[in-house]
Amino acid sequence: MEKKPVIGLDDIAAVHNSPGSLYHSLGHIIRAKIEAGEWEIGQKIPAEREMMEIFSISRATVRQGIDNLVKEGILYRVQGKGTFVSPPKIEHGVLRILDFCDLVDQTGLKSSSQMIAKQEIIPPLNVQNTLRLGKGEKVLWIRRLILVNNIQVMIESSYLPTNQFPEMEDQYRGVNAPHVHVFKHYGKKIFRVKEMFEPVVLEGAEAKILGTEGGYPALWVEISAFDENDSPFEFLTALIRGDRVRTYYEMVVDRC
Question: What is the CATH number of the domain that holds 192?
Fold first, then answer.
């Protein structure tokens, strides 16, 4: 028997008495119930009409509140069936994009990838400058779609100078091969990483590849990897679905 999510009188009062908009208050109540474990993963939430009647609010208000939670990845919709509680987001710390798949596998989830592109190109100017390449020097451009439990979560694009990685196109056969394994073949080791983060909104082709709609939040990451001589040997970008992945930063504080 399907478990029915409970909405109490306190929840109804909180929606109408909280500061801010009604749809924001509704979203806060739903999020709080999920975080507290009252509404479980995969559980179907009340339909829009039922929410309207329970909270005495308009359909537009209910829809706005739920839409925001869907975009945040708190809820997900199944056409013809309703709206459900999403599983927890994948968490990763900064400086872990390069071994993202290994990190995911360690959590018990299953990572996989699909090759989108692999070819030698003359890189864009920003990549050329980052890798300190001369005019006309080429890179191997590798673009992959990363999936976790068969859900699209990231588009990864890697730029590797062909003068440092000869015949890399032949070496990079396994689409799931972690970067560090490939680097070992060439005697490369990462000594320093520079990483830049920027919140963006998914649009067009990228949204389609990631299996979502335009307008959803995402995180844009740019990574430069340097060797022991502080020379750059890889430039990597990652476009990550904001509704499925959470990035955190952990810092040790010296209290002396």
Answer: 3.40.1410.10
In a domain, 255, yes or no: no
HSE (side-chain half, CA atoms, 13 Å) at 41: 5
45: domain range? 9-85
Asked if residue 1 is part of any domain, the answer here is no
What is the tens place of the pLDDT at every residue in 123-137?
998 899 999 999 899
Q: Which residues contact 106 (CB under 8 A, 6 or more apart)?
A: none
What are 190-224's pLDDT values in tens digits? 888 888 888 888 888 888 898 887 788 888 888 89
Classify residue 196: in a domain, yes or no.
yes
Task: Give the position of tokens 């939430």.
Answer: 45
- 57 and 149 together in one domain: no
With beta carbons less than 8 A apart as the criterion, state whether 94 and 221 touch.
no
Same domain, 101 and 224: yes
Sheet of strand 151-161: strand arrangement: 111-121, 139-148, 151-161, 232-241, 217-226, 192-201
User: What type of residue sits at position 97?
Assistant: I
Nearest CA to 156 among 73, 232, 221, 90? Answer: 221
Same domain, 101 and 223: yes
Q: What is the bridge-based pairing of β-strands 217-226 and 232-241?
A: antiparallel
Which SS3 state, helix, strand or coil, does residue 186 take? Answer: coil
